[in-house]
């Protein structure tokens, strides 16, 4: 599409670039505005939130809404989310990578097992949550950390296995072979060769696994009561009172969103591969 | 494919013999516990008649399944789910594709735009719904304000109550959050298209659309298919955004299959009937997904 001879104004490279910039800026403003608004509300005073016509920015940065969340103890739900998502991510990464290694290097269970594992990911949460709830009532696991950790781990395993399969395939086989020839056991090879070699893949996959668990709502809604409430459930607790709790909704949402923004900022390179379940190798 | 097993590297030593099973066993166990067990258990209780007050475990045959057919609220909720899916999915695809085309050619600062545009994707859908609830508030939300500027007089549209506006509200939120998902995947896929092919076609005089449909689209199809599958499945089980925005209301107008199942199970406590619904959903989706995965060659 290079312009060789003189073209009409609209087709000149400079004009084209200007138009593309204009569209890009408008699009970005549209997509970022809701996030901006959420953050702004969290900094506004109640008077500013309920000003009419709406105020487009907070007059000054004040953290009163956040202080409120810490004072009445609601902020502990963010800590719960951290414990649940963090622990389940570590377990899912270890178990999932082990399973992926077995699938890649030994073809365990053949194609059918791999298909069955990924199909587990596709089962809608609402369809399994009800029997899981009954099971958990029976075990006394409702509103416990380990109950949700087990559920998040299991729910994320297919994703971890699927992603790590791709990363393990990229590890050169010779390294593992020479370690075996040197007399290492397979367990040693797994821990000292495969895990270290796959570390970038591990790290990238872990971030997404964490985000999935962190952003979960439906499992936490059903399986928490008071003790291990996550931030997503906490946000919905503010919905009832006819817009009285806007400051809390916004501040709690921001507390729950910032860590994800930070985590993903470090993972830009892997973002597409991560969200497309490896369909695009990056 | 080259040989990728390493069985031959060592004559199987005693501690290693069952290694390949030991490493996969914990994962399989968890998947059976949380994946297969609920499936079987659902199936069993769906043939009983359990409610919150009724603990009788005798079997009632296909009674619950028969009831599925006359439950209009169930079919309406399926219809709502389909409506949201068939509107939102093509829009996300088309907008995502248009945005990917816009950013395909290099431009200074492209990475900054892309980084900002991807933010909605990683937000929790519950938070996304809550954010739009605040944006769409009839009095204090900025959207009515902006619409008022264009209309020339103040607008007080009741986005999460008015029957004509609840679907647009849900779909705006849905599209806002997930168009960037399509955009990111399609941008990556488009960047991998072999430039020499498209340039050769252009030199041969093929127009933009012809090149797009004959060369570009077939080569990004595998990736696009996966993106559509992932988004399609997410849309079919849509719950969080609706819970935040309308909670299924007004009445049951925006109740999707996930919301309806939740209501049956956790506010009506129709234990057995919920299991029947859940099993219907699982059965439907399992068939569709297994077929789609094999069909699209994803299981490679």
Automatic annotation (TrEMBL), chain A:
**CDD domains, sorted:** TM_PBP2
Q: Name one Pfam family in it.
A: BPD_transp_1
Domain ABC transmembrane type-1, chain residue ranges per copy: 78-267
Keywords (A to Z) from UniProt? Cell membrane, Membrane, Transmembrane, Transmembrane helix, Transport
Q: Please give the PROSITE patterns that the UniProt record associates with this protein.
A: ABC_TM1 (PS50928)
Q: What is the first-listed, main subcellular location in coarse terms?
A: membrane
* Membrane-spanning parts: 21-39, 78-101, 122-142, 148-168, 189-214, 245-267
From the Swiss-Prot or TrEMBL record, state where the protein is found. Cell membrane
This protein's membrane topology, according to the annotation, is: Multi-pass membrane protein
Family of the protein in this entry: Belongs to the binding-protein-dependent transport system permease family.
Protein name as annotated: Carbohydrate ABC transporter permease
UniProtKB/TrEMBL annotation, chain B:
The portions of this protein that span the membrane are 21-44, 78-100, 112-132, 165-190, 211-230, 273-293
**Where is the protein situated, by its record's location annotation?**
Cell membrane
Main location per UniProt?
Answer: membrane
Q: Keyword annotations for this protein?
A: Cell membrane, Membrane, Transmembrane, Transmembrane helix, Transport
Q: Where is the ABC transmembrane type-1 domain?
A: 78-290
Please name the Gene3D superfamilies in this protein's record.
MetI-like (1.10.3720.10)
Note the Pfam families from the entry.
Answer: BPD_transp_1 (PF00528)
In the bilayer, the protein is annotated as: Multi-pass membrane protein
Which CDD domains does this entry report, sorted A to Z? TM_PBP2 (cd06261)
Give the family, as the similarity comment puts it: Belongs to the binding-protein-dependent transport system permease family.
Q: Which PANTHER family match?
A: BLR7065 PROTEIN, SPERMIDINE_PUTRESCINE TRANSPORT SYSTEM PERMEASE PROTEIN
Query: What name appears for this protein in its UniProt entry?
Result: Sugar ABC transporter permease
Naturally occurring in which organism (per UniProt): Dongia sedimenti
**Organism ancestry:** Bacteria, Pseudomonadati, Pseudomonadota, Alphaproteobacteria, Rhodospirillales
